[in-house]
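// run 5 | inverse folding | seed 20
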């Protein structure tokens, strides 16, 4: 009777143990699945929010810069026509042309000055013109427009203006006399810090950054939004550490097709979600969103999952080892003619 009771007790204990570890395994799997689902949901939610915000931002930026450039170009064409007409008829008057340019400038958003030169490059027309006049005859845009009567709008890379002594972004048109000969250039100037202020009005999360660059990846303007860990440069050492970014930016500027991707910048020890689009041909805007916290959270979940899986493997392995040891003990006792210490473990 004792042996039957002992066997029943062993079977009961074994059944309870199997139920216990089975329950633990199920609980672990539930935790693993829940964590995976949570991580996937968080990632999808973050990506959806980023995509939505980027699309809205892209549309806003596109409308802002396209509208700005188009408005400036219309004013430049009108000014070039009027100045060319007055020069051709011999009625050009510096004071009246300066008033005309100033009226045009007042209609332009964020344009600092609207000025014009004669055919020798002397800046004669427009407000704030110094005496003696500054001369721009050696500027690349002046030489190019002088030699090309059919040239259109010339967008100049940022340079230090000779009158303002500040970084400016220039938009230039050729002035042609009625006989087609060269009469000078008319140009609109925007201070770079004004463009940065424009970018700063866009709503972005702290730590994000927007940069406007030309087709050669030259920086026109950028704005980094307030953060507890300020970024002094959008991406320091980009040419050396992240050449693939240059390829992406160049591709966007030339093809006009936007791109969105995530990348880790080792020099800053930060993760970024970068959206790049082309506001106009051979230019691009790059929007940087800091996603380091999200990436760290994803990594933390991954580590926790690994630990849970390792723990599960350890528990299963421990149980298998215990069963082996009990079977070995029973075998030794049997060889010595003694009763089993762990009844019911022989067929485990």
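// decoded
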């Amino acid at each position: 009777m004792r042996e039957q009771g002992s066997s029943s007790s062993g079977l009961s204990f074994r059944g309870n143990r199997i139920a216990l570890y089975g329950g633990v395994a199920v609980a672990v799997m539930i935790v693993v699945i829940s964590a995976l689902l949570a991580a996937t949901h968080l990632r999808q939610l973050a990506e959806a929010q980023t995509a939505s915000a980027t699309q809205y931002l892209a549309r806003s930026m596109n409308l802002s810069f396209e509208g700005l450039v188009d408005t400036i170009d219309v004013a430049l064409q009108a000014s070039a026509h009027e100045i060319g007409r007055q020069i051709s008829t011999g009625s050009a008057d510096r004071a009246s042309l300066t008033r005309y340019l100033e009226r045009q400038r007042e209609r332009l958003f964020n344009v600092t000055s609207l000025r014009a030169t004669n055919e020798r490059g002397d800046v004669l027309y427009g407000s704030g013109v110094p005496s003696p006049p500054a001369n721009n005859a050696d500027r690349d845009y002046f030489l190019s427009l002088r030699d090309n009567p059919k040239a259109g709008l010339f967008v100049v890379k940022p340079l230090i203006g000779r009158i303002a002594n500040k970084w400016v972004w220039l938009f230039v048109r050729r002035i042609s006399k009625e006989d087609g000969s060269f009469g000078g250039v008319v140009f609109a100037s925007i201070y770079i810090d004004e463009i940065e202020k424009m970018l700063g009005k866009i709503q972005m999360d702290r730590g994000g950054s927007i940069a406007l660059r030309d087709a050669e990846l030259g920086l026109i303007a950028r704005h980094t939004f307030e953060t507890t860990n300020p970024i002094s440069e959008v991406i320091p050492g980009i040419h050396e550490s992240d050449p693939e970014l240059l390829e992406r930016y160049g591709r966007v500027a030339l093809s006009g097709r936007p791109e969105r991707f995530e990348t880790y910048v080792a020099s800053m020890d930060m993760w970024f979600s970068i959206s790049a689009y082309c506001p106009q041909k051979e230019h691009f805007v790059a929007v940087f969103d800091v996603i380091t916290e999200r990436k760290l959270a994803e990594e933390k979940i991954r580590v926790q999952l690994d630990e849970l899986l390792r723990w599960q493997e350890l528990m299963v392995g421990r149980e298998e080892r215990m069963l082996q040891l009990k079977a070995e003990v029973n075998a030794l006792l049997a060889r010595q003619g003694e009763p089993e210490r762990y009844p019911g473990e022989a067929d485990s």
